[in-house]
């Protein structure tokens, strides 16, 4: 039988997990045991689960939390998916790993479904010893073509921003400046403070709290939280910025 007629069943989901901290948009990276290699959270899709179920499972295994916003953004299936490290290097690294969760990181998978997740940075405590939150501009060479995943996830995030619940990247209580920093960081542009705050307030999904953020040198800013129902309604029509 010709190689061209052999079915290739290996399919994985690979997740770009976005978090926001200290005015930086960051991505969660995992380190394969006893190596210097980093990758995105990744796992094989079983025959008994949908792609969405597989992505949720991988996210749960790597972050310890569920019910997280997940968005599929692209399918990756190049013949040679080893951008920075050869297939032989990747195989050796993954096969030498003793970590149960990385056993599903099959070096053979030729099709990967890319998902990105929006999470509250402060709530994530991955059950792995070796992990890091890495700023977009500082991401090292990753296994497979995972650097391409990050690039394309960011493109998709920017393109669909008006309809995405990016407030999930913020802590439960935040300032208007925090939200402005989030938009500015994702879009890589600056907004006029007064106009941006006025725009946000017109949607009526921000609840002003009776408390202020303490610890700054200037006047303590007001804290806000999201009215989830009104926020979801606003997202249906798209939030202008």
UniProtKB/TrEMBL annotation:
Name the UniProt record assigns to this protein: Nudix hydrolase domain-containing protein
Q: Which Pfam families match?
A: WHD_NrtR (PF21906)
Q: Where is the Nudix hydrolase domain?
A: 8-157
Q: Which domain of life is it from?
A: Bacteria
- SUPFAM superfamilies tied to this protein: Nudix (SSF55811), Winged helix' DNA-binding domain (SSF46785)
Q: Which InterPro entries match?
A: NUDIX_hydrolase-like_dom_sf (IPR015797), NUDIX_hydrolase_dom (IPR000086), WH-like_DNA-bd_sf (IPR036388), WH_DNA-bd_sf (IPR036390), WHD_NrtR (IPR054105)
């Amino acid at each position: 039988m010709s190689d061209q007629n052999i079915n290739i069943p290996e399919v994985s989901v690979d997740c770009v997990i976005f978090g926001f901290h200290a005015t930086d948009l960051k991505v969660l990276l995992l380190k394969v045991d006893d190596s210097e290699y980093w990758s995105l959270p990744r796992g094989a899709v079983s025959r008994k689960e949908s792609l969405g179920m597989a992505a949720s499972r991988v996210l749960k295994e790597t972050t310890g939390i569920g019910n997280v916003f997940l968005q599929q953004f692209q399918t990756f299936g190049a013949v040679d998916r080893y951008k920075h490290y050869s297939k032989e290097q990747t195989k050796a690294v993954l096969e030498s790993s003793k970590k149960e969760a990385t056993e599903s990181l099959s070096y053979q998978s030729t099709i990967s479904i890319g998902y990105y997740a929006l999470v509250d940075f402060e709530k994530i405590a991955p059950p792995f010893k070796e992990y890091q939150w890495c700023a977009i501009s500082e991401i090292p060479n990753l296994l497979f073509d995972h650097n391409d995943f990050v690039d394309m996830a960011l493109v998709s995030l920017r393109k669909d921003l008006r309809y995405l619940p990016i407030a999930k990247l913020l802590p439960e209580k935040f300032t208007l400046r925090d939200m402005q920093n989030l938009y500015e960081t994702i879009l890589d542009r600056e907004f006029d403070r007064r106009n941006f705050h006025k725009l946000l307030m017109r949607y009526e999904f921000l609840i002003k709290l009776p408390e202020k953020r303490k610890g700054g040198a200037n006047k303590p800013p007001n804290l806000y939280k999201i009215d989830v129902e009104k926020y979801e309604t606003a997202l249906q029509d798209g939030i202008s910025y």
